[in-house]
Amino acid sequence: MEDLKAWLLNNAEKISSVVDFNPAADRLYPFDFTVQNHELTDDILGDTAVFSAWASNKLEVSGSRYGIGGYNEHRTIYTRSAHFDTEEEPRRLHLGVDIWGEAGTPVYNFYDGVIHSFRNNDQFGDYGATIIMKYDLGGEVLHVLYGHLSLASIKGLQEGEFIAGGAQIAALGNQQENGQWPPHLHMQLIYDMEGKRGDYPGVCQLSKSAAYLENCPDPGLILRYTFGAA
After folding, report:
1. pLDDT tens-place string over residues 68-99
2. Phi-psi category of 69—alpha, beta or left, where left has phi over 0 and alpha has psi -120 to 50?
3. pLDDT tens-digit readout, 149-171
4. Domain ranges of the chain
5. pTM for this one?
6. Of the candidates 185, 94, 182, which has an alpha carbon nearest to the alpha carbon of residue 131?
7. Which CATH superfamily is domain 2-227 in?
């Protein structure tokens, strides 16, 4: 991770914003999806439309353009989907950063890269449309998973296709195409894809958190160049 931090610092002028944001005028709302958030009842989480309205209201009332948060966060919200349950231990630790906003919000490539893989992970609670980019950062390979996208975002793509930094690569999907979630981007950094294509766990079991967090560093290292702090 120290090598990644050093590369980003030395190449700051080459890093593009992931979403449109003006640090001087726009605000971010820090979402909390842990057990400490007593507002999130089963009635809210059990209905995606109600959950979406709840999230949108938080942004509107706070005057925020986006909501943000989630890296290394132990989230109780995953009880809403059997996708995160396993026989031995449920998955609850979030490995990416979420940017909550309106469906259709453009997503941009933070740096020159190629498409590693893509897929529509269409189970309830999953990513929905997903793009994984591969980057060469001074000789170090880094993958970035962009999840909960619109289905149009993955049409016509080809593995190995080059996408320039700053180019739009996707847009946020609505609940019908993003795995039944309020519209948001799941952004996750991954060193070793472990042979997976179009998918990689975005939530892990607590007992395996050390290995996953080492393989998936904090996306805030990149997002600080979008939001001016992170």
Report:
1. 999 999 887 776 667 666 667 787 899 999 99
2. left
3. 999 999 999 999 999 999 999 99
4. 2-227
5. 0.94
6. 185
7. Glucose Permease (Domain IIA) (2.70.70.10)
